[in-house]
Amino acid sequence: MAVAESGTSTPHPIPDKISETELRQPTQIIVREIVETLLLTFFIFWLVNSLVGRYRIDGSSMNPTLQNGQYLIINNVSYFLNEPQHGDVIVFHHPQSDLNLIKRVIGLPGDEIEIDNQQVTVNGVALDEPYIAEEPLYSYSGVVPENKFFVLGDNRNNSSDSHSWSFLPSENIVGKAMFIYWPPSDWDAVPHYGFQNEE
């Protein structure tokens, strides 16, 4: 049996120095991973902001449904495939200013709108509107043109809407109001009411 001599061991080669390439590689990997993470983060942020928007309620035109200071999530792609429906609560660009407004869709293209004796009528059918603050004290009559909509605030007598500035062009619509997310105590889905004769 061969016995190793005392105080000796199998030698292991030790490199004189680590190559510059080996030193640089971990740094390049870290930088690349940081860049990839940032690009992915920016892409996700862009995608989310393309699909949904955030909107702050300023004013009382949609009382009692929506309150001043509430923040909403808006679905920006709702109407790419489908047209707005009666009762939808939508955000849109004001046709005569730079403001963004939120109102309820009352008339679709071709609808005949009549507001008289504190009652809104669409195509001869009086609407049951449990969501309004009070009955309208004004009168209006008109037919909604093609590619336009008739919108009203739920706070009928304190709202700048189609009864005062006419019809809303379809291209001005931003999206459909979906959810109240702030303040947390008000978390809830935004109520959309289809007309009773469409149920």
CATH topology: Umud Fragment, subunit A
Largest sheet: 8 strands, antiparallel
H-E string: HEEHEEEEEEEHEEE
The DSSP helix count reads 3
Mean pLDDT: 84
What does the overall shape look like?
elongated
Taken together, the total number of domains comes to 1
CATH homology group = Umud Fragment, subunit A
Strand content: 25-35%
Low-confidence stretches: 1-8
CATH class: Mainly Beta
The CATH architecture comes to Ribbon
Helix fraction by DSSP (H/I, runs of at least 4): 10-25%
Rg measurement, Å:
31 Å
Number of strands: 12
Describe, in short, the structure shown.
The chain is an alpha+beta fold.
Task: Name some characteristics of this structure.
199 residues; alpha+beta; Umud Fragment, subunit A; eight-stranded antiparallel beta sheet; four-stranded antiparallel beta sheet; 3 helices; 12 strands; 20% helix; 29% strand; disordered N terminus
What do these coordinates show?
The protein is of the alpha+beta class. The protein has a single domain (54-198), classed as Umud Fragment, subunit A (Ribbon), CATH 2.10.109. It has three helices and twelve strands; from the N terminus they run αββαβββββββαβββ. The protein has helices at residues 20-51, 78-81, 162-165; strands at 52-56, 71-75, 89-93, 100-107, 112-116, 119-122, 125-126, 140-143, 148-152, 168-169, 173-182, 188-189. Strands 1, 2, 3, 4, 9, 10, 11 and 12 form an eight-stranded antiparallel sheet that branches. A four-stranded antiparallel sheet has the order 7-6-5-8, with no helix packed on it. The protein is elongated, with a radius of gyration of 31 Å. The model is unreliable at 1-8 (pLDDT under 50).
